[in-house]
Design goal:
Blueprint: E1 3-9, H1 13-26, E2 31-33, E3 42-47, H2 54-68, E4 76-81, H3 82-87, H4 89-94, E5 100-102, H5 110-120, E6 124-126, H6 131-138, E7 149-153, E8 155-156, H7 167-170, E9 175-176, H8 179-191, E10 196-200, E11 208-209, E12 212-213, H9 214-222, E13 229-233, H10 242-250, E14 257-259, H11 267-272, H12 279-292, E15 297-304, H13 311-324, E16 328-333, H14 350-374, E17 379-387, E18 394-397, E19 403-406, E20 416-424, E21 428-433, H15 434-441
Parallel strand pairs: 1-2, 1-3, 3-4, 4-5, 5-6, 7-10, 10-13, 14-15, 15-16, 19-21
Antiparallel strand pairs: 8-9, 11-12, 17-18, 17-20, 18-19, 20-21
The structure holds iron/sulfur cluster (SF4).
Length: 442
């Protein structure tokens, strides 16, 4: 009988990359992917520990699963990702429906775990920080994503220990993948239709393998024919070194959008968060990059209502948003993560945090709205990624990652088209290809 796996992914792009690699792996022992829960004889949940109630979300999901399979044969249930890493054996104690737990650095062991389970039905967890073996393994399996825009993990883990963050505990210490493995994977992606590569790492700009840094990697990937766009995420301000900044002078394929989390506009709060950078440092990076190319735009992450945040600190965050005019950003109210230094700090009043979040988001959304409006009547290069969900139009992205919807067909997928923007809202642009715009004018 064919084994069918249903994979559900929570969280970041790295989890998405990992889920695809997990599928490339289990294919080797006969699994096919199903998009329908009920068909699955293996259910894998790739979890995220960053957001609130991550653990509870997992048990909630298992509860749903139990209902669906109440009168059917139970599927093999695997919990992967950061919650599995943090909870491991605890999960087995709390939920008998879970069969295997596997941490983010142990995916290369998944086939053995599954085959052993089929043989002896013994529950098992693998949660060692073994990035070296994982990356060695990744170099042997093909990245079959086949997408126009594909993720490529180059680095994992973090040594920075921001006080609010679980990543150093769930992903382990910083480890950079060997340079040649990354280039091989990039070449393979390009041969299979990928036009844009998004380099991933929890601290992607801390990448350092022997003499190679992220800047070297970008220049090497740029030489691969077929690759038209390069992006990287997520960066830390301390690792925005001059060699990386200067790449923006030379690179033809590095996109002019930098996701550089700042978290707060207040030095006091940055210090309490143990971010190890201050606002003047952040502004220097901004100025240097704008001097190189004034069209470079920034996006960021903000934590609102961090313990100790006073009104004047919050005002500094608003001021920074006004200065930088972020093109796009994520903002959340602080919520404590068990096991982190900030877990037991005294929370500020919830209503105050909610009011501040609303103000921040209004300001961010207003910027976004204005920036998108200013794109109307301009011609932008759009990399077409796919058909829209209803299959009636096509969907692509500008150099700044903004979504664009336009008329077109399957043949346009993978092309970079000049598109005249005719309409916009906060999150999306609507346009026509320059050819059809000219026809309409005529
Ligand atoms: S640098 Fe990023 S990943 Fe590392 S601890 Fe801070 S927030 Fe977490």
């Amino acid at each position: 009988m064919t084994q069918k796996i249903f994979i559900k992914t929570f969280g970041c792009q790295m989890n998405e990359y990992d889920s695809n690699r997990i599928f490339d792996t289990v294919k080797k022992i006969g699994f096919e992917k199903t998009l329908n829960y009920e068909d699955a004889n293996c259910y894998l949940l790739n979890t995220c520990h960053i957001r609130d109630k991550a653990k509870e979300k997992v048990y909630h999901e298992i509860g749903r699963l139990k209902k669906i399979f109440r009168n059917k044969k139970k599927p093999l249930v695997i919990i992967a990702g950061c919650v599995a890493q943090a909870e491991n054996e605890e999960m087995f104690k709390r939920e008998s429906y879970i069969d295997l737990a596997i941490g983010p650095q142990s995916y290369h062991k998944i086939n053995d775990m599954i085959l052993n389970y089929f043989e002896d039905k013994r529950r098992n967890d693998e949660t060692e920080f073994d990035a070296i073996s994982k990356f060695k393994y990744l170099s042997k399996i093909k990245n079959e994503t086949g997408k126009v825009s594909a993720f490529l993990t180059i680095q994992e883990g973090c040594d920075k220990f921001c006080h609010f963050c679980v990543v150093p505990f769930t992903r382990g210490p910083e480890y950079s993948r060997p340079f040649s493995q990354i280039i091989d994977e990039a070449k393979y992606l390009s041969e299979n239709g990928t036009k844009e590569i998004v380099l991933l790492g929890q601290n992607v700009n801390a990448y350092q393998y022997k003499k190679y840094k992220l800047s070297n990697l970008i220049l090497a990937i740029e030489k691969i024919s077929g690759i038209e766009r390069i992006r990287y995420t997520t960066s830390h301000p301390n690792d925005m070194t001059d060699d990386l900044i200067n790449i923006y002078k030379y690179s033809k394929k590095l996109m002019p959008l930098i996701h550089l989390p700042v978290q707060s506009g207040s030095d006091k709060i940055l210090n309490l968060m143990n971010r190890k950078h201050d606002i003047s440092q952040y502004m220097k990076i901004f100025d240097k990059l704008k001097n190189i190319n004034p069209l470079i735009q920034f996006s960021s992450d903000f934590i609102i209502g961090y313990p100790g945040e006073e009104e004047k600190d919050f005002q500094c965050t608003l001021d920074l948003i006004e200065k930088i005019k972020f093109i796009n950003s994520f903002s959340f109210i602080f919520s404590p993560r068990p096991g982190t230094s900030a877990a037991d700090l005294r929370l500020i009043n919830r209503q105050i945090s909610m009011n501040r979040l609303e103000k921040v988001q209004n300001q961010l959304f207003n910027n976004q709205f204005k920036i998108n409006k200013s794109m109307e009547n301009k011609i932008l290069n759009v990399l077409v990624e796919n058909l829209t969900e209803d299959k009636k139009q096509i969907f692509g992205r500008t150099e700044y990652m903004t979504s664009v919807i336009l008329d077109g067909n399957e043949d346009d997928i993978g092309k970079i088209l000049p598109v005249k923007i005719i309409k916009s809202n906060r999150s999306t642009l609507f346009g026509v290809t320059v050819d059809s715009a000219n026809q309409k004018v005529a």
